Prior knowledge:
Layout: H1 3-6, H2 16-23, H3 36-52, E1 59-62, H4 69-80, E2 84-88, H5 95-103, E3 110-114, H6 121-133, E4 135-140, E5 147-152, E6 157-162, H7 170-173, E7 178-181, H8 187-200, H9 207-215, H10 221-237, H11 245-254, H12 264-274, H13 284-290, H14 295-308, E8 312-315, E9 318-321, H15 323-328, H16 340-345
Parallel strand pairs: 1-6, 1-7, 2-3, 3-6
Antiparallel strand pairs: 4-5, 8-9
The protein binds adenosine-5'-triphosphate and magnesium ion.
EC number: 3.6.4.-
Protein name: Holliday junction branch migration complex subunit RuvB
Domain AAA+ ATPase: 55-186
Amino acid sequence: MNDEDLSLTSAESAPPERTAEAALRPRRLEEFVGQKVVRDQLSLVLDAALARGRAPEHVLLSGPPGLGKTTLAMIIAAELGAPLRITSGPAIQHAGDLAAILSSLEEGEVLFLDEIHRLARPAEEMLYIAMEDFRVDVIVGKGVGATSIPLDLPPFTVVGATTRAGLLPAPLRDRFGFIGHLDFYDAEELREVVRRSAARLEIELEDAASIEIASRSRGTPRIANRLLRRVRDWAQVRGTGRLDLDAAKEALRVYEVDERGLDRLDRAVLSALCGRFAGGPVGLSTLAVAVGEEVETVETMIEPYLVREGFLLRTPRGRAAAPAAWTHLGLAPPEGPEGVAPMLGRF
Ligand SMILES: Nc1ncnc2c1ncn2[C@@H]1O[C@H](COP(=O)(O)OP(=O)(O)OP(=O)(O)O)[C@@H](O)[C@H]1O
Ligand SMILES: [Mg+2]
């Protein structure tokens, strides 16, 4: 089966960036770079299920955007040789939509529920029962005449993905037999991602360029692949056609990706924090308004990497700038009673 036909990234409907992304997805677990712990654990779950000839337990994948959750869901289906159904929390408006999907599942099918934290409550409750008892109550008719008919489902596997595991209610989380948390990739792993992608795209990439791209990709394979394509553009249009260190540096300058991999928005958040809010702490929503972004964007796409790189601190009283943020922006960290050091002492 061709999983791209079922994916949200099919060639006809998807924007070009998405199509380019789909083309670079690893198809098998052994091609999946990095995330060694999750990969090992998952391969055990899958091998055991294959050996028993049964559908594996439900799998939950969590982690920041672009780290490989959708890719892994597709790999799970491929490794099991099982059909894959793809949908997402926001796409399921009513419990009936979920009932229709569940009642049409084939034996052993993998049901990928992206953004599972955004499922509506009634659908979520229906999902608990389906995941645990392999049963769904189908409502027939409307109003007073409506009756509920229990329908047994064949064994299937839910693969849920979420960028916000914390938002998942405990009863739902507990129904997953395996929870894998994806973390940011290190530079060496990203270099491997870039190298493989270049080979797939038949791009000749110099080693120094792949190191440069990897080190500026915010720990994220999706960004690494995107930067690779932008460097290729630059090399073709403004450079010599060679993807060397100069091309990488120049392209990344044009796209305002700095040497730590921070982009314009990352820096806007840090500038607001250090400038307007004097280092904080400041509430997340206030910070989001200051940079003209949604709270969710700041919380899921921007903040995790800034925290991990030691630029931003999450505190009970809000977000605060770490000394590295000031230094990175070329500012002197404040000193004295109002400065960063005593402020940190309070958390
Ligand atoms: N481990 C990996 N090895 C190689 N390429 C990867 C890996 N993980 C992700 N990628 C690449 O990064 C792109 C983004 O990955 P994917 O779509 O799976 O992320 P995601 O976690 O589902 O993100 P989102 O939360 O935004 O849905 C993929 O198209 C794939 O090419
Ligand atoms: Mg995804």
